[in-house]
Structures are given as C-alpha cells and as structure tokens.
Amino acid sequence: PRADIGVTGLAVMGRNLARNFARNGHVTALYNRTQSRVDELIEQFGDEGDFVPSTDLKSFVASLKRPRRIMIMVKAGKATDAVIDELVPLLEEGDIVIDGGNAHFDDTRRREQALKAKGLHFVGTGVSGGEEGALNGPSIMPGGSKESYEALGPILESIAVAVDGTPCCTYVGPDGAGHFVKMVHNGIEYADMQLIAEAYELLRQGLGKTPAELADVFRTWNEGDLESFLIEITARVLDKTHPGADGSPVPLVDLIVDAAEQKGTGRWTVQTALELGVPTTGIAEAVFARSLSGSVDQRKAVQAAGTLVGPTGGSLAGAEAEGFVDAVRDALYASKVVAYAQGFDMIQAGSDQYGWDVDKGAMATIWRGGCIIRAQFLNRIKEAYDKDAHLASLLLDEYFAAAVGNAQDSWRRVVATAVRLGIPVPGFSSALSYYDGLRRERLGAALVQGQRDLFGAHTYGRVDKPGTFHTLWSGDGSEERQDAH
Ligand code: 2AM
C-alpha cells in the first residue's frame, strides 16, 4: 500500500479535494460508488499528481498506508452512515475516517462514539470555501481525537489556504467540535449577508442610488475596515447586468426573484443557539429574514390587498441625505461586530457544554482565508483573544468597544431612518438592541420575574439580599423566603 490519503465520494467537492491532496504531493487513493467518476477524474486530471484509483472499496482500503486516512465526501445524512457502515468492517485499529460533509455536530458526536468503540478514529471536519476553495485551498475545521490530528493534521494543513504563512486549518476539539464550529461559521455568514443586504436596500431605497453606483460604494468600503470576500462579491453582483425582456441591459439584481433560499445550516445554528440559551440574534434575524422573503405567496397577497400602509415620503433628501452613506457603513460595521461577538459566544457555549476547550482566537485565525466570511476583520478578533482568551464579550475588547462606540450615533441614525422610511432592518436594529441590552443595567426583566412569580409562583431573587423569594399574591401579600436557609 502506498496511498497517503483516500477520498471516497467524488462529486465536485470530493473530486476537488482529491486533486488538492494530489497536487500537494500526497499519493491519493480514489473510490466512488459509480466507477465513471473515478475514470473521469483520472482522465481529466490524472497528470496533476499521484492517484491510486480503485474499482471496489476493498482494494481502495488496501491501497492505503496505515493508519489509513479516508475522507468521505458524500451528501450529509443517510449516505454518510451508509458509507461508514460499508467501510468500517474493512478497517483496522487506529485508522481514521474523516467526514468532510456538512454534517450536524450531533451526528458527528454519535458517529465518533460508535467508531471509537471499534478502535477507530472519526474526524468530523468543516470544509469551507465551496468548490473553488476545495481545489485551491479551503478553510478546514477538523474535530476528533488529538491523536488523529497528529496523523492527519499535517496533510490537511498542506491543502488548506495559508494567510500570512499560517494555514487556515487547526485542531478544533473532540468529537463534534469541528462541525459545530463550521455550523456557527455558516450562521455568521447568514448574518453578515443579511446585514450587507440591509445596507444595500437602505441606500437603494433611501437615497435612490442605482446598483452600479452602489457597486462603487461597496468597492470603496472594501478598502477599509469592512474589507472582506462578501463585500467584494456584493460589488460584483451589483455591477452585473443581463439583457432584460426588451434586450437592453438590466441590473441582474433587479432580474433575480427577491426570495432568499437556505439549505439549513443557518437553521441548525439557531436551533442550537436556542438550546444553549445563547442570544445569537443576528443569525436568528438573518434566518427569519430569509424565511419572510421566501413567503412569496403571503407577500404577494399582502401587496395585492394594499391594506398594510406605510409611511409617506419614501426617500431622503437634502440634509437628511447628507453623510448617510457613511452612516450606513458605520451601522453595518457595528452590527457585524455584534453578529461576530454573538457567534463567538456561541462557540464558547458549545465548547463549555460539550467540554471541547475550543480556542476562539484560533478559529478567527483559520477563518481569515478560504471560507466565505474571510475578512481582514478576523485579524482583529484573533488579536482580541490573543490579548485576553477569556474576554466576556468581543465587544469588550478595546478595539471593538471603540469601533462600536464611534459608530453608535450613526447606527442609531440609520435604524431610526429605516424605521421612519418603513424599510425593514431586522439585522441592524436587533444588533443595536443587543448592544443596548448588554450595556444597560436594567432591562425590564425584573418585571418579567414579578409576573412569573404572580401567575406561576416561579420566585425571584432580590437586589438587596441573597435568597429566593415568593410573594403571597393571593394571600396576605407578604413575602416568603423559599430556599432552604
Ligand atoms: P455516486 O457517484 O455513485 O452517485 C455525492 O452525491 C457523492 O456521494 C457521489 O460521489 C455519490 O456517488 C456519493 N454517494 C451518495 N450516496 C452514496 C451512498 N449511499 N454510498 C456511496 N456513495 C454515495
């Protein structure tokens, strides 16, 4: 046996990862249920590196050096279990099975346990960057045992993209940690995209700017603190035209149906956030905004009825418009900081819940390249956690505190303006509410506690003394201490 790593499941992602391994000097074993995918890969790209193709799973396994490293690249879900079940009887103690699909971290935890019981390593890994990243350098987030990382890490690091000489791949933590972090990455991606869309819509509707003009705005923003892949592609999308019905060029963004779709990782993030009790409002608003946009029939019915009225006066003029572009930029940046702060809180909560000991600064480091949320900004996050790994919130870091502090007047202006114009900004406004919520001493929660105690005897704590208390609401109105003392 001479192969360093094997890839099974050779659709686009698997094929590109296999080519990436081979291009980086790793002897790469290939297997796919349908033989033609193996043949095509060899035919088209066989000269890119040293491939060892197999026609059956047994010889595929036999072609690998031990401990065997086998990457499964099939559609997340039942197919992953089916392939694992076929593979496991052919493996020997210490072999490493890697799932590079977008699995739910609960599934990864279950699979890791099952394989560990058989003396095998199971590595659930996030792979971000799409087809292009898989081929030329993704961001890789591997979970599993530390021992498996010793055997696998160097190979993964060699195919990951590098930023400032550091590969965008590092050990994340045990069992489901890698897929959990990838899930949160995708959730943050949802939030980031929603905020950019809100900025676009505000400038388009509020200032009446054209998509081409806004492409310039985003290109300018891409030269400052907002510099990121998502801002860059926003400018490209806004610049794009296609012939409309009469053949003349129309901005593509005006030809695309205004209903956002989703594949589910954003939803997973929010479901998990709810279970962990972490307020990831930015991600939640982004997922719900996509749902609302996708409620096409309902939107059409409401628009057709014309009964839900909005404010009069739909755009800004004169002094109101003055500096609005810059204000939106500041609001976008501040909201983005909040969304990331929440995402990193969620990583911490998952890490605490499952005992993963995830290094948040290291996650920011491996997200700087390869993945969709790659951005300059992530250097700042890394620096913040380098300075203080136990930061209570990213918003407390000196740089970020100053950034949101300097932005807050613009942020409030933008949210107030959007409200006045009747333009929905769920991302901007909930991020601002979160910021104010974190900052203020009292939030009205004391009243909620009072209500809960009145209707359900749920008790409350007091600011002036320790203990748990209940007021005898339907009795004599006196207060009882409830905890043992
Ligand atoms: P196929 O080419 O034989 O369809 C993406 O669908 C990749 O996952 C493809 O390479 C596909 O193989 C593979 N795949 C999907 N379900 C599978 C299964 N149950 N067993 C093996 N491979 C599977």
UniProtKB/TrEMBL annotation:
It holds the Pfam family 6PGD. The active site is at K182 (proton acceptor), E189 (proton donor). It catalyses: 6-phospho-D-gluconate + NADP(+) = D-ribulose 5-phosphate + CO2 + NADPH. Gene3D superfamilies: 6-Phosphogluconate Dehydrogenase, domain 3, N-(1-d-carboxylethyl)-l-norvaline Dehydrogenase, domain 2, NAD(P)-binding Rossmann-like Domain. NADP(+) binds at G9, L10, A11, V12, M13, G14, N32, R33, T34, V74, K75, A76, N102. The keyword NADP applies. Substrate binds at N102, S128, G129, G130, H185, N186, Y190, K263, R290, R452, H458. One of its GO terms (biological process) is D-gluconate metabolic process. Its EC number is 1.1.1.44. Pathway: Carbohydrate degradation; pentose phosphate pathway; D-ribulose 5-phosphate from D-glucose 6-phosphate (oxidative stage): step 3/3. The keyword Aminoacyl-tRNA synthetase does not apply. GO terms for molecular function: NADP binding; phosphogluconate dehydrogenase (decarboxylating) activity. It comes from the Bacteria. Keywords: Gluconate utilization, NADP, Oxidoreductase, Pentose shunt. It is an enzyme of class 1 (oxidoreductase). Residues 178-474 form the 6-phosphogluconate dehydrogenase C-terminal domain. Catalyzes the oxidative decarboxylation of 6-phosphogluconate to ribulose 5-phosphate and CO(2), with concomitant reduction of NADP to NADPH. Homodimer. Belongs to the 6-phosphogluconate dehydrogenase family. This is 6-phosphogluconate dehydrogenase, decarboxylating. It comes from Quadrisphaera granulorum.
